[in-house]
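Obj.: predict assembly geometry.
Materials: sequence records (below).
Method: joint structure prediction, all chains together.
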Amino acid sequence: MLEIKCPFCGKRSQNEFSYGGDASIKRPELGKEISDKEWDDFVYFRKNPRGKHAEFWHHVAGCRQWFKVLRSTSTHEIFKTAKINEEL
Amino acid sequence: MQKYSIFSLIKNAFSNHQNWDVAWRDPVPKKEYDAIIIGGGGHGLATAYYLAKEHKITNIAILEKGWIGGGNVGRNTTILRSNYMWDANGLFYEYGMKLWESLSQELNYNVMYSPRGIINLAHSDAQLNTYARRGNSMRLNGIDAVMLSQKELKKMIPFADFSETARFPIFGALMQPRGGTARHDAVAWGYARQADSMGVDIIQHCEVTGFDVKNGKIQGVETSRGNIKTKKVGMCVAGSTSLLAEKLNMKLPIESHVLQACVSEPVKPFLDHVVTFGAGHFYCSQSDKGEMVMGGDLDGYNSYAQRGNLPTLQHVLSEGVAMFPNLSRLKMLRTWGGIMDMSMDGSPVIDKSHIEGLYLNFGWCYGGFKAIPVSGWTFAYTIAQDRPHELNSQFKLNRFNTGNLIDEKGVGTKTWVG
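Observations (raw structure tokens):
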């Protein structure tokens, strides 16, 4: 069982959270003309490292806030969590 | 190569089975090959086998980081089926089913193909309707499909919860009678033995650490056992695909996730078919040893760990108990995890890449095992002919850019969108 430290609620069990994937993804700016390639990258392409991975999690059965987690994909160790507007 | 038969079995019994030939050699890598397959799992071994048999390219090496059959081909729930609706999937997997049907004879190795039928339970009228639509699409593609009523199901799977108070009452089912199971290790070993007999070098404990690319063309690979020259490289490394692609500065539309499976203690025969739960993601069958073989959802977060967590197992098994209440009395014998190459539309890629001589085979998601023969067959064609076969012509790498997704289930890497 993963224990994830929500930046708002503290340590809670994995059951309360839902995963949101790669935290480096940014939606293209509204109203800006962008190429098909850029849309393609935004919608379908994600980082997939073995090791440290910055990712979004959602405290769906708690405060319902999205936040960032720095976690190892090879050991599942969690190094750090941060609010969505903070740097990891 | 020594042929396996009842006579060779009797003959070797007289010498206490001490004189069997080795099933495959343990060769030292040569300096150069006509083609290199990275990954000695089911797909890699099958690819090498069909390259040698169908395309007469025998100067091939299979480079395997660990040992053959130690990855997902030894970690799955051994289910075979072609019950897909979209043509791209249906025709592809149905060709695979035909290969499965004669695979034991072809490989002279008993892969224990067991067409016991795969039953997809429906828990509402709406679900029955969608299953009927899928079944009709399958039949139009020449794939066997039958609808089953609750009355028929009661005879076939009497231990399922047919009560009206069940959380998800059983309304009926879609069945593919030719679907079933096979012995996973035997598939890897059978392909390895035949490929080896045709001259393919199976090189274990040899990790690919880099690629030699000049002017957009593959020249060779760098490995933990030295550099090897080649003009053609086929990659069949499932969950590790992104790691190898990174060495070529390629970004691929996949995430690696851990998928768990488990078996119970062995019990007397009580389930003759493969059965899937329609109100969640759970499937089970009973092995020849009597164990219940069960699986379900991904753990739901990127992982290369080959082991998962208990909350997902608990979730999956609670679905199992909702379907077969008597499963709750069983003890679990083993649980394990494998790393799935989850593509963004849930369908695989078998295609050329932008580098000449580099061919890609990945994105098998939950269903790589059943695809082994047909994936190997089409990938071998793609490598030998330098173009996709009609069967894999839609499993393109650039389909995410062009919008031609093969979104059979409407799920990709995320388990909760379904």
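Conclusions so far: Chain A has a mean pLDDT of 95.
To do: check interface contacts against the pulldown list.
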